[in-house]
Amino acid sequence: MTTLPADTILSVRDLRTWFTTKRFTAKAVDGVTFDLKRGETLAVVGESGSGKSVTSLSIMGLVSKPGGIAGGEILFRDRKERVHDLAQLTPKGFRAMRGREIAMIFQEPMTSLNPLYTVGDQIGEMISLHEPVSRQEARKRALEMLKHVEIPDAENRLDDYPHQMSGGMRQRVMIAMALACNPSLLIADEPTTALDVTIQAQILDLLRRLQKQFGMSILFVTHNLGVVAEIAHEVVVMYAGRVVEQAPVNDLFARQKHPYTKGLLACTPHAKRDITEAGVRKALYSITGSVPPITDLPPGCAFAPRCDLAVEACRAVPPALMEAGAGRLSRCLRSNEL
Amino acid sequence: MTLQTALENEDTTAPLISIEGLTKRFAGRGGRTVHAVEDVSFAIRRGTTVGLVGESGSGKTTAGRAILRLIEPTAGKAVFDGIDLFTLPERQMRAYRQRLQIIFQDPFSSLNPRMRIDAIVGEALDARGFPRGEKRRARVAELLTLVGLSPDHARRYPHEFSGGQRQRIGIARALAVEPDFIVADEPVSALDVSVQAQVLNLLSDLQQRLGLTMLFISHDLSVVEYLCDEVVVMYLGRVMERGPARQVYADPRHPYTRALLATAPVPDPTAKRVHVPLAGDIPSPLDPPSGCVFRTRCPHAIEACAKAVPPTETVGDNHAVACIRHRELAAA
């Protein structure tokens, strides 16, 4: 049996998730490696097309044709300390795993909630699917969950339909449903992106508190570096299907070891930095061009065409993910100059 | 006074457009009324940018569209260059439309996929009676260059462009008629972060080069702080606070503005977090709370807040706030 360090709950190793058609192969995820420690939050950051969502879908076994896992391992430790390779799991095996061991919340709760059933029924169904409980017991547990996610007046909201709730409340219901069977891993794919800032703050606050209470590990997928700073312990930055940088959150924000991460942080407007004392606006740092299509990547470093630091060697072969200081990695030949 | 100084005076002080008591109500289901925008007033000086911020349901987009009469306002005035746009008959309004332009959020749905770029940008020129032929081609090329595209792009279709490039095309189209006033409705929200900065730099550059007057609608507080001279904070259809951006961000007076600024995530893990974010959700505009619309979520609400809509009080140079407790809160 494959081994996993005792403090690690999830280890993604050289994961490749490709979408193959007659005309092309899109390597949406191409050699992604990272570890998630028990009870921690790992943020996977990237822009559209970076492969961050396909990574999370691969872990959940939700990649559909023509996509599929072309290689690599997804080692997961269940609550009985058994280690599974999710990349090899059968659909039947996944059904036992999803909900009970691993749960997922998405950006738009309305797409994952059934509009025809009350929220109480949906949370209850989740529980009775995995545990031998009576209808009454399931309902009682559903109510408990609604209270855990701080839905005001939970007794009366139990029989509400999703459309009767606001976006923030629906996301709370999603979280209640995800955590109903006390999974050890929660995958959160842009869970606050569709929400307003004041609601986003509530949901992040809730996730932090529930993590303390239930001890689940969180894989948090987002494009928002502000959110990363609020929630993550460890950060993985993805670009064009690959990890370009990985570091503990404080280290990453203090100093970036990949020009892409550096650029991402520099190009978000920040008045203190971008407006002078006299009130004069300075031009924002901007990364030229846009993310290349995954089917048409340059031969060397995928970021080289947009990179200020790119040299001949960068364009020749794709650089490897290398150590760049204690506990951090970078896929850049010039990382030590940063 | 020489003509020059007279012009300078006008440039810096006179508002180009002044919105007074703008109200937009929609008929809701069951004979109920949606109070989308209620009694909104602010002015935009020539050559400046005002940011209209608020969460979804705050009425910011509705306000922007009502000002341009893309939807008909229910009440109020929009005095543009001395004329109230809201009283103009549609025929006369058409003549004004060229001077008023809009840039939309979604660069994918706002460009006709069957039209080439030269036709999209040129359409606006046609409306203005710009002659066809070489001169028109030259003008399209000039506009594309202005927004950082190449004149060669003129013969391509929208699907051949990335999101950021499409937004540039949208901007070129808006600028084609040399408008005096532009409403930019969340122009960078649909773009990836790395592309946002390019478009913000373009807008900032155009502001300076062309002296554009702009209403910039956004939910992103850091973008507004960077790009706007003044800011108007809306909540549930009403203005909570308005003032010079630097002043409002440095010294927010309304509890809602304070909450918004405190909860916006900052890319700094060592920054202090607010541990008590604003509770609850924005109420329905079908049934807004009596008195101050923010009171149901306000940590400082008292009984008096439910009694009457708080008057807008001046707290500084051009800085105004609609909260009956702003003085005690500032002192606390």
Structure characterization notes:
The complex is a heterodimer of chains A (338) and B (332). Chain A is built from 13 helices and 12 strands. With 338 residues, chain A is α/β, with parallel strands linked by helices. Among the domains of chain A are: 112-182, no CATH class; 256-320, no CATH class. In chain A, strands 6-7-8-3-9-10-12-11 form an 8-stranded mixed sheet, sandwiched between helices. With 332 residues, chain B is α/β, with parallel strands linked by helices. Chain B has a domain at 3-99 and 219-264 and 281-331: 3-Layer(aba) Sandwich (Rossmann fold), CATH 3.40.50.300. Chain B has helices at residues 3-13, 60-67, 90-97, 117-127, 134-146, 163-175, 193-210, 221-227, 245-250, 255-263, 326-331; strands at 15-27, 33-45, 49-53, 75-80, 83-84, 100-103, 181-185, 213-218, 230-235, 238-244, 313-316, 319-321. In chain B, strand 9 (230-235) and strand 10 form a beta hairpin. Chain B is globular. The model of chain B is unreliable at 1-10 (pLDDT under 50). The chains are: A alpha/beta (338), B alpha/beta (332). At the A-B interface, helix 8, helix 9, helix 10 and helix 11 of A face helix 6, helix 7, helix 8 and helix 10 of B.
